[in-house]
Structures are given as C-alpha cells and as structure tokens.
Amino acid sequence: MEVAKHWRETPERYRLEAGKCSKCNTIVFPQRIICPECGNRKFTTQSLSGKGKLVSFTIIRIAPGGFEDLAPYAVGIVELEEGVNILTQITDCNPEDLKTGDPLVAKFRRINEDGKTGMIYYAYKFVPDAGL
Amino acid sequence: MIGIVGYGTQIPRYRIKVEEIAKVWGTDAPTYKRGLNLNEKSVPSPDEDCITLSVNAARNAMLRAMIDPADIGAVYVGSESHPYAVKPTGTIVSEALGACPYVHTADFEFACKAGTEAMFVALHLVKSGVVKYALGIGADTSQGAPGDALEYSASAGAAAFVMGAKNVIAELIDTHCFMTDTPDFWRRENAHYPEHGGRFTGEPSYMKHTAGAVNAILEKTKMKPGDLDYMIFHQPNGKFPVQMAFSLGFKEPQFRHGLLTPTLGNTYSGSSPLGLAATLDVAKPNQTILIVSYGSGAGSDAFIFKTTEKLLEIRDKAPLVRKQLDEHLMYLEYGQYAKFRHKILKPE
Asked: For residues B166 and B193, is the Cβ–Cβ distance under 8 A?
C-alpha cells in the first residue's frame, strides 16, 4: 500500500466518514465526487455509527502476505445502521461461529505494514458487538 | 474545579493462563500463581497494539465525556510499546478521534509510569487554563522475554481520561511525585525485551518510590490512609501492591476494586490507570480515590481525586472494566500466544 494513498483515505479509514448527498440524502462510503443516485456533486460529511449487521462473509484460510498471522479470519459485508454496506475484516472471534445477521461493531485496528521497517497501516475492522 | 470529565478503557479479549506458560518452560504453575498472585493475563490480538488500544479506550472515554473532539487541546499517550521509534502515537490517536489539527500531542515514556505522566500533564495543562480539555492515556502491549518471570505477567490494555473543568466526574484534589535515578528495569534501543534487576525491583525500587509518593501526598493534603475510600497502586504483579497497601495502613476494601492483576496481568503504562477506571466504575459520589503509579528508572506519580454526582450520569455510557475483563474471553495455547506475540522466527 502506498503511504500517500493511505493518508488520503484517513477520514474513511480512521473515522468512518461518509459523504451525504446534499440533494437526495444518499450516503456514500467511501466518499465520491458524484452521487450515484441523483448525479449531484455536493456532499456533506457524516460520521457513520460503526454499528451494523453481518450480511455475508467468507473465511480466509490461506492468507495473502502480511495477513498470515491472522488466519483463519473472516472477511464480510456489514450493513450499517445508516444503510451503507462496508466490506471489512471481522476480528476478535472464531470465524466458524459467525452467522449472517450477527450484530457487529467497528473497532480501530492494525491492518498491515510495509515490512518491519515500513509504515504501519491502521483502519476499522469489525468485531462481534458484545458491548466491550 | 478541574479533574476527570470522561474515562474509557480497552482490554483485549484473548487470555493465557499461568499453567499454559509454566507447562512450556517446565516450571511450577502453583508457585508462580501464589508468588505473583496472578492466574492469567490479557494478550493482544496480532492486529492490536498500543495505538489501537489507545484509540479504542479514548473513544470510550469520549462516549462518557460527551464533548466535541475539536475541543480537545492536548493528547498525550504514555507507553513503553509505542509502535514507532520515530513517529508519534499521539498523532494517530488525535486523527482517529477527530481532534486534529488544533491539538498539542506528545508521547511519553517512563516504563510503567508513562500513563500517569500523560494524565499528570493533561490535568495541569487544563488547570493552567492553556487548553479546555486534555486527554491522558496509558497503554501498553507489554514485553516479557520467553521464559522470564515477566512472561507470566506482561499483558495488554489501555485507559484514557479526558481532563477538563466542566462537568467534572472526579475532582483533582492534589498531585505529588517521588523520583530518583534507580536502575531496576530497562530496555535498550533495538532490544526486543526489557531486562531487570530481579529482587532489586522490589524494596529499593517499587516499595521505596510508591511509599515515598503516598507519604508525600498524604502529608501535603493532611490526610491519613483511613480518610481515603479507595486506593490504587501500580500492579507489576498481584503481590507488591497488596504488601505495600497493608504496610502503609490501608485495608483490603480500599484496594479490592482497583486490583486487576490476578486476571489481567501487568499492563505496564495502563496498569494503575486501568485500576482507577475500575474504581470509578464502582465509586459513589463524594468518595476519595488515591492512585499511585510506579515506573522503573524510577518514580511514582500520586493523585487524589474526589468523585462527584456527575459520575453516576455518565458511568454506563461506555463498557465497564470488569465487563471487558471477565466476559467473552478467548483462551490461547502457548503456540497461538507465541504467534500472536511474534515470538516465532519466520523467514523474511
């Protein structure tokens, strides 16, 4: 991952900031230039709640580089309270125990790193919502 | 009135029992459990570190403080496991909270005392009127070399405190520090694990500095041990703080709620701050709390707080420490623990 690309995406990755169309109120995440519903180009910033339900998921057993220590882990689509779907890693659980519909909540986690001397990348992941 | 306006914690879900570690090194688990007054410890997931624990604890603190993140004028993080040697933990925490760009940030290091250093500076910056709110965080993913006594206790966790002058839940009564140059524990640049002076970490180090800070703050505030409702000392194990408390004239009900080591381990910079958070979880209004940290090298920071009615209004807005400590736990075998803590040598 490029340092500058990650830095540009800080609002989404660190704070779950979405764009809300000023015309039709559609919420887009990540933020876009043009509203996919009405073509409007003006958005306000809205922080997402980070709470949602698991819509679908798969279990990664052969992990790509940088994720080996986490395997097996789940990657899934979470529908947030605001109606936005997010593709995310699901952590802090035995992936075999996950079920669609499970309530999940966002946590700030380490995503990957550029080797042992490079940058460390942080962003949201989702965990089972146990009130912790 | 200045003091704490919000507090929050984060403790990893993973645990390893003393028996599991003892089994690998051929040591006697009951001896360690009895000697350290410790049964298990928290273990960070591979995707958790000092920064993620700080952010998640701070977010819980913000749920209780109910303030605009842009009003936070300072963010200080104390830890001995900052992920970068050069690049601040505090900038990432500030950015994740939405406190940037008008915020002063610094990372503190002073062995296990770094967390209360952050709190000390945050409190006094608010007291001086320089900032409206300041955040002080103690967080660590503690290091303990394989086979060393520290491996049984070195754990992970974070506690964050929003300091301010409005809607205070625990008023700061006073602070005091006790500091000398005492080389009882250290980690050199580029070293993976700390080294320590064995029994030297006890009497001339932990005991002397903790007692020095306690006696000084009690004299300064004209209080006696019996005047305090609760007290928390740094918890390198479950034995030292209990011995220290009894020797200074405190009683078990005063430290019962803040003593977390038996099931948490030693969270280094997060240790006494987590004990304070656990105490705030149970305290009633108008009760006094003494917290005394200890950091090798060596020194202790002492604070006395007095809770207010406001505490009851905000307490349930974020998870309680005992909930994070006791519920939904996931136990590791030593092999998983070694992988999680990057103790296994792999080809690059």
From this structure: no
Q: d(Cα B247, Cα B221) in Å, to the nearest integer?
A: 20
Predicted confidence band at A21 (pLDDT cuts at 50, 70, 90)?
very high
Q: Domain coordinates of chain A in residue numbers? A: 3-128
- CATH topology for B3-169+312-340 is Peroxisomal Thiolase; Chain A, domain 1 (3.40.47)
- A8 reaches B (C-beta below 8 A): no
Measured in angstroms, the CA of A15 and the nearest CA of chain B are apart by 6
Q: Where are the alpha helices (DSSP H) in B222-344?
A: 240-247, 252-255, 261-264, 271-280, 310-314, 321-326, 334-340
Least CA distance to B100: which residue of chain A? A11
Alpha helices in chain A (DSSP H): 3-8, 10-15
Closest CA to B244 of B199, B211, B213: B211
Q: Could you tell me which of A23, A24, A36 has the C-alpha nearest to residue A85? A: A36
The model's confidence at residue A1, banded by pLDDT at 50, 70 and 90, is: low
Instruction: Give CB contacts under 8 A, 24+ apart, made by B193-196.
Output: B193/B143, B193/B144, B193/B145, B193/B148, B193/B150, B194/B80, B194/B143, B194/B144, B194/B145, B194/B150, B196/B150, B196/B296
Phi, psi of B295 (to 5 degrees): -125, 130
- Tell me the Cα Rg of chain A: 16
- Neighbouring-strand partners of residue B41: B16
Which two three-digit tokens encode residue B260?
Answer: 């977390």
CB contact under 8 A, A107 and B323: no
Q: Which helix (H) or strand (E) holds A105?
A: strand A103-113
Domain B173-306: CATH superfamily is: Thiolase/Chalcone synthase (3.40.47.10)
Query: ipTM of the assembly?
Result: 0.97
Domain ranges of chain B: 3-169+312-340, 173-306
In tens, the pLDDT along B104-142 reads 999 999 999 999 999 999 999 999 999 999 999 999 999
CB contact under 8 A, A110 and B56: no
Q: Is any Cβ of chain A less than 8 angstroms from the Cβ of B337?
A: no
Q: Which stretch of DSSP H or E encloses residue B65?
A: helix B50-65
The C-alpha of A45 sits at a distance from chain B's nearest C-alpha, in angstroms, of 13
B80 a catalytic residue: yes
Give buried/exposed letters for A97-125 (b at 16+ CB in 10 A, else e). ebeeebebbbbbbbbbeeeeeebbbbbbb
d(CA A25, CA B230) in angstroms, rounded, equals: 51
Measured between beta carbons, the chain B residues lying within 8 angstroms of A10 are: 95
